[in-house]
Design a protein that fits this description.
The protein has 399 residues and is α+β, with helices and mostly antiparallel strands. It is built from twelve helices and 16 strands. It folds into two domains: 4-267, no CATH class; 275-398, no CATH class.
């Protein structure tokens, strides 16, 4: 049983740390998994699936795969949970009836140990169907941290890992997945795209965006009482998720799926106009009748401020918004570098901005942190600046 001091410690930690407890909605899981199944109906057949940090008492991931255990043809489903005493957000934790009424219940371990739930093709309760009611569970030896030897061994047993990991641990979690050489589908943040753990793997087609939820809102359940911005709460309500007895709800406009499971969306070519057609017909006033700007310190490349304005007949290097990755077809384009990576910019031939650029930028009112030695992609019209988070690409046929 937790002491009063331990509870206060957890409460303070929960208030002082960013809330990492986001519960994914069934509809979002279903849409993404269906995209994999549409591309390969046997993608889950005879597979061991691990859902780390997904207690089936709360997690829609566990409930979803337990419901579809038979029709997906799963070999085994493993789900783990994290010990409440190790989780700063688990304030005023109480075990569920599912656990507390079980013969395996331990009043100490319910707070200090994680749990493991397994489902195999066995009708344990003899009701004629294999589903969540046939789950078997036990306490883990440790707290259920994915980095533990115990959970890592489960990763090594699995063929596929699917979950919504804590956003604050996304980098080490992705490294952990690649260390295990497993297939996976996980929810992350769009800003993670430029992480050194993420971008090189996207560039080399070892990782890509999921098929759904790109540039759209996702709704997540959060623990009751968690801090939620009013606008996000209202948006979640508008999307059909008012607060209930179990959760409050928030929306995230920058959440997305990252995966190495193939899906049809990444093989759909972008439908694009030629450069001349864009200059004549583009819906964007920045392009229509104006054309494309070249970078001050990398004139070999043009800046394309909108993904739908990529000219289909340009064989040169192009700087495009990072949202390009949402629609990236590796058969149509190659990704050369992220403009956030100064070493990659140097290797590709981007010059330093230089004293004159920085001087003019500041004289025109620029306040961003920049020095003459930076290799940011500079533009000079309508003012001196550098565009936000560009990715350098080239048409595949032109490489």
């Amino acid at each position: 049983m937790q002491t009063s001091s331990a509870k206060n410690t957890n409460l303070n930690a929960a208030m002082a740390t960013k809330n990492d407890e986001f519960y994914t909605q069934w509809a979002d899981i279903e849409r993404e998994m269906n995209a994999y199944l549409e591309y390969d109906p046997d993608v889950f057949r005879d597979k061991v699936i691990l859902l780390p940090c997904d207690d089936p008492e709360w997690s829609n991931f566990a409930k979803f795969f337990a419901l579809h255990f038979v029709d997906f043809g799963l070999k085994k489903l493993i789900s783990t949970s994290y010990a409440p005493d190790s989780n700063p957000a688990a304030v005023n934790y109480q075990p569920t009836l599912f656990e507390s009424e079980s013969p395996s219940f331990d009043e100490r371990k319910t707070h200090t140990n994680g749990k493991m739930f397994t489902l195999e093709p066995q009708d344990i309760n003899e009701d004629g169907v294999v589903n969540i009611d046939d789950l078997q569970w036990e306490y883990l030896e440790g707290d259920g941290d994915f980095r533990s030897d115990e959970v890592t061994a489960l990763r090594d047993e699995a063929n596929i890992v699917i979950t919504n990991p804590p956003f604050s641990l996304f980098r080490p979690f992705v490294n952990w997945l690649f260390d295990g050489n497993v297939k996976f589908s996980v929810i992350g943040n769009n800003h993670a795209l430029t992480y050194v753990e993420i971008f090189p793997r996207i560039q080399t087609n070892r990782l890509w965006k999921g098929a759904t939820a790109n540039s759209t809102d996702m709704v997540f359940g959060v623990p009751k009482g968690a801090k939620v911005k009013d606008d996000d709460r209202k948006k979640a309500e508008k999307l059909g998720y008012p607060s209930d007895d179990q959760f409050d709800y928030t929306r995230q406009g920058n959440a997305c799926w990252y995966t190495n499971i193939d899906h049809g969306r990444r093989h759909e070519p972008l439908q694009l106009m030629t450069m001349d057609e864009n200059i004549k017909f583009s819906k964007h006033k920045e392009i229509r009748g104006v054309g494309y700007k070249r970078y001050y310190n990398f004139p070999e490349a043009i800046d394309v401020p909108f993904v739908d304005a990529i000219p289909s007949d340009n064989d040169g290097v192009m700087g495009v918004p990072s949202t390009f990755v949402d629609k990236y077809n590796p058969d149509q384009f190659e990704i050369l570098a992220s403009a956030e990576d100064m070493e990659a910019m140097k290797e590709i031939g981007v010059e330093m901005l230089g004293v004159e650029f920085v001087k003019t930028y500041k004289e025109q009112g620029g306040t961003g942190g920049v020095s003459p030695g930076h290799r940011k992609l500079g533009l000079t019209e309508p003012r001196y600046y550098w565009p936000f988070k560009r990715i350098l690409i080239r048409r595949k046929s032109a490489s």
